[in-house]
Amino acid sequence: MKKVRLEMVEKENRMDFFKYLLLADESEEVVKQYVYDGDMFSIHYENRIAGVVLFTLHQNQVVELKNIGLDRNFRGSGIGKIVLLEAYEKYAGMHKMVVGTANSSIGNLAFYQKAGFRIIGVKKDFFLHYPQPIFENGIRAMDMVMFEKELKLGE
């Protein structure tokens, strides 16, 4: 397994990692609304920063994977899956993890399902409220597809 390390990013240093958050969420205005929420970790692989991941905590023992931004050089290498496995351990006391992604994010839709997440709903027109339209894979991002995964010790 690849050697991946997560390091906590303190609130006063979060803007140093802003560019990584924008890799997963293109709207600076939207990212600025949540950059100081929850727990942020820098993702390290072979002594290099590969990206960042941000989790927010909600009622009823729910943790949300709010943003995971990996540098393009590290995508498709299995690092994202390892980050999720680390997160399952970090938040093992929580009931479940939720994550949302755009209807146009074909790779993300497959990634989360391969990681054991199940579709639980769609937030219709979610991305229509973004300041600028987002297009991926020739598809306009309009709806957010919501996923959840129950967390159990040892997963």
TrEMBL record:
Keywords: Acyltransferase, Transferase. Residues 4-149 form the N-acetyltransferase domain. SUPFAM superfamilies: Acyl-CoA N-acyltransferases (Nat). Its EC number is 2.3.-.-. GO terms for molecular function: acyltransferase activity. Signal peptide: none annotated. PANTHER family: GNAT FAMILY N-ACETYLTRANSFERASE (PTHR13947), LD18367P (PTHR13947:SF37). This is GNAT family N-acetyltransferase. It comes from Ornithinibacillus salinisoli.
